[in-house]
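User: What would this chain look like folded?
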Amino acid sequence: MATETKSQSLRIALAFGLVYVLWGSTYLAMRIVVQHVPPAVMGATRFLISGTLMLGWCLASGRKIAITRKDLVRLAAIGILLLVTGNVGVAWGEKYVASGLAALVVAVVPLWVALIEMIILKTERLAPRGLAGLALGIVGLVILLWPRLTDNSVLGHKELVGIAILIFASLSWACGSITSRRSQLSIDPFAATGWEMTIAGFVNLLLALALGDFSRTTWTASGYLSIAYLVTGGSLIGFTAYIWLLEHVPTSKVATYAYVNPVVAVLLGWLILHEQVDRYVLAGTAVIICGVAMVTMSKIKITAPAHSEAGKNRSSKRVKPASAN
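Assistant: Here's the prediction, encoded as structure tokens.
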């Protein structure tokens, strides 16, 4: 029994490590890709490959992948919110913003979720500690962005444009996460995610064709490797570890990835791309993470939204997720 318990503890630790590192490093990979590959092309390539592989694995493992018309509408809405305007929106922002800074801006997704559920949906309320965390998160965001807000240079303006895109992308991710959690689907989380990625891949492909992005694409070795990493590490291995954790560990513990991913992203951006980490980044990181932790741990349900058991297990990874990874 002791050996079995130790083995399970090791598996849990490994799964947490995978989610922490793989999802935190996706910001770095996207930053590398978008230097030569337009975001829509990256999204089309990444999600068509990962979605097809996920559905193929589901089929091979005997999981149901057939969907109803209602499923298709819901999966399309979720896929577009999470993986087109959400994830690929983050890639657009990273054309102008360092990967570590992008991860920190996206880290406020739980704050968006809390505001939507509290003010618009009225399904949850925040305890005083949560309201304090919400205010703290906003203060942290202002601290983080202060040098850009006071910079009148062309570079500063471009960064502000990128940050605006990231804020919109994080809002889209929050909306997609809430929609996912409240949706009743006839398939399990793995098959649902496979369809969401595949649908998002086709939408990104249409967007890339409409914008003429393929003519502006320069494929490099680093681009190929980064997309391969996003497909395997970010979409397949990372998501599988996340779903496994949801089945074996309390959701509140799994949600700690939202605090760790930005730190991993900042560290990797500094180490590999030599991105600047100044006192504003350090202070903003600490304040935002504290605020997000306070909000996440203080939610109080008012009404329980109707959703299936499968829906309960399909919480977004960038709330979670993700990080919009």
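The first helix runs from residue 2 to 33. If you want, I can go into more detail on any region.
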